[in-house]
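Lecture notes, part 5. Sequence design as translation. It can be helpful to think of inverse folding as translation between two languages: the language of shapes and the language of residues. The source text, in structure tokens, appears below.
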């Protein structure tokens, strides 16, 4: 008896079930007030941890934490990214789901006096992954940075899939 050899990997699946999230782009009054309180406390030098996150903000933070699980971000990076994006949602008065292409580009280029904005360079790839996975932001080069795409691809598609794509691309370019 001859058994067939498996010649292709299992079909790739999107890493998160994004359809399970509330994709409403507007902030409720309660969410806006909770964000305002959080920003004011942060600006006053008070520590804002995820432990004391108001329940009304879970709709905004759950997708962020799910993507950060995907990236394997360490606790400090997770905290800073979530705080930065919550601040941005407060200032823009809209959830990341409603951000335009220009809003995403502005996030990386803005020069606001925000306490966390200057640290974005330390965790840029995780924010790119959030933009890509949750909001279909793909124009990384528009952010004005030299982007190394492999670490982003590895975080989204997994190391094995990224290696497979890279080796396939090398074979194609070598034959051209």
């Amino acid at each position: 008896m001859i058994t067939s050899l498996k010649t292709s990997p299992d079909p790739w699946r999107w890493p998160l079930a994004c359809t399970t999230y509330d994709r409403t782009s507007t902030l409720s009054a309660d969410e806006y007030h909770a964000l305002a309180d959080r920003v004011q406390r942060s600006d006053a030098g008070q520590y804002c941890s995820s432990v004391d996150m108001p329940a009304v903000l879970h709709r905004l933070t759950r997708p962020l934490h799910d993507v950060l699980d995907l990236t394997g971000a360490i606790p400090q990076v997770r905290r800073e990214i979530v705080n930065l994006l919550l601040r941005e949602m407060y200032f823009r008065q809209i959830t990341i789901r409603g951000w335009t292409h220009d809003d995403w580009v502005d996030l990386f280029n803005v020069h606001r006096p925000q306490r966390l904005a200057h640290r974005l360079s330390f965790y840029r790839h995780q924010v790119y992954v959030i933009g890509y996975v949750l909001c279909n932001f793909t124009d990384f080069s528009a952010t004005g940075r030299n982007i190394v795409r492999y670490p982003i691809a590895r975080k989204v598609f997994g190391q094995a899939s990224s290696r497979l794509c890279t080796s396939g691309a090398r074979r194609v370019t070598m034959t051209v």
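The translated text above is only one of many valid answers, since several sequences can fold into similar shapes. The chain has seven helices and no strands.
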